[in-house]
Amino acid sequence: MLERTKTNTSLVELDRAFQYAVTLAWEDLKTPIEPRAIRVEYLSEPGSPVDHLSVWSVRAGGYQDLVCDFWASTSVAHASGASFGNRHSSDKLAANLDFIMKNQGQFTRAADAGRHGLVLLYPPDAKDRAEAATWMKRAQPLGVEASPA
Question: Is position 44 within any domain?
Fold first, then answer.
C-alpha cells in the first residue's frame, strides 16, 4: 500500500512518482499473468537526472520479466522513450514515465539516497489507485512538458 502524501510535484520524491506511474498502469501490466510485484530500477549520480530506468515484473517463484526500458535521451544504441519487452505494452505507463522523466526537476530525492534507485510495488488496492490518479491530475498541469492523459 502507498503512503499518503501531498499532491504537489515539488513535495513528492522521485520514487513516489514512479510508484504512481506504475500504479496507474497496473491493469496493463497484468497480462498475460498478474505479477506479484513490479520493480523499477535506475541509476542516478548525485546532482544528475536519471537517464535510464528499467521496469520488471516479478511473478511466482521469483521469475522476473523485463516490462520495459525507458531512456530520457537518444543515442546510436537506443531511441528515447519506452521500449517494451515481448509480452508487454502500456501506453499509459509510457506516457506516465515520459512525464516524470521530462520533469525530474520537480521531484526530490532523499538526501541519503544512493546511486542505485529501486522501487518495489505490490498489487495496488482501490485507495492506491485513487491516490495515484489524484496526484497525476494535479501534477501534470504543474509540469513543464506534461504528457497527454
Answer: yes
Going by C-alpha positions, the residue among 117, 97, 85, 107 that lies closest to residue 7 is 107
Query: pLDDT, tens digit, for every residue of 42-65?
Result: 998 877 889 999 999 998 888 898
Q: Is residue 2 part of a domain?
A: no
Residue 5 lies in a domain: no
* C-alpha–C-alpha distance, residues 91 and 60, integer Å: 25
CA angle 55, 57, 61 (to 5 degrees): 145
Q: What is the dihedral of CA 148, 146, 128, 34, to 10 degrees?
A: 60
146 CB-side CA count, 13 A: 11
